Structures are given as C-alpha cells and as structure tokens.
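INTERNAL AUDIT FORM
Audit reference: QA-55
Scope: verify that the stored structure record matches its stored sequence.
Auditor: D.O.
Record contents follow.
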Amino acid sequence: MTARPYTGNTDGNHPTPRAGTKRFVEFVEYLFGVKNIGIYANRPMRSGPQLSVHATWRAIDLKGTKAQRKDLVEFLFKNRDDLNIEEIHSYDGTGVPFPTDKWGAGYRCSRDNWLKWTISRNGGTPGADWVHVEISPLMADNPKLVEEAFTRIFSK
C-alpha cells in the first residue's frame, strides 16, 4: 500500500448526488448489514469551520452493530487502495488494528496509516456507533469503477 493524496473538501459543495457514492453504499449495506445514516450535508465539520466532506457527496456515515462495524472497518482498510478510500473514522475504535480509548481513531490515505484520536482530534463523537467513510472523487463519480473494484476484491 502507498500513500495517496487526500482530497478532503477541495471539490467544495456538490449538492447533487454522485452515482458512485450511491453504488458504494449499496455494496457495503448489502455486504455488512450496515445502514446509511447520512451522505450529503452542506455544513462545517464538527471539529471546526471548514466545509465537511459530506458537502461533496463523498462522505458516508454507516451505522451497525459492533460486529458489523468491525467487519466493515477491517474490510475497508484491507481494500483501501482498490476502493480508493480516503478516510475512515472509527469513533469507538472498533476494527482499528490497535487499542484505542473512547476517542477512537482515524485512517487517512495521505499518511496511509491510522492515527489514535484525542479530544482535540475527534470533535464531539467519541464512542459513536457509526463509521465515517470518504471515497475519492473518481470513485464517487463513477459507479462502474465502484463495481469493478468490488468485483476485483471478490475475485482475488
């Protein structure tokens, strides 16, 4: 695995649905039994005044049981390059490859690593029972690429 650039909210507010994001959600809901609890929201991040990646239609919050979230986080991290995963937030540390406290941890593609969170790094969602996932603009805009990525993963 190698580090990839993190795009964050650089594409700004994108108020129309992105077909690749919707297709990605369909796959993970089916595979892991998680429920999409939010994609688009034109708002600042919880931790500061910057625009949330939810405003780009590339961030998804997925709720499920602890076992579902564990399987999801481990799968996304293992297949992060195929799926063009840019960020994963595990607010309670479920599925993270090292112990965390109540603040959880976050993965970012630009460092290709997890970072244990503290109160200053997790702005108000400690112990939450959902996972935040961000995919690249390329995947968000292309459902065919999403389908090809899942096909590749399951044909290994």
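Auditor finding: record pair retrieved intact. The two ends are 16 Å apart (CA to CA).
Action required: none
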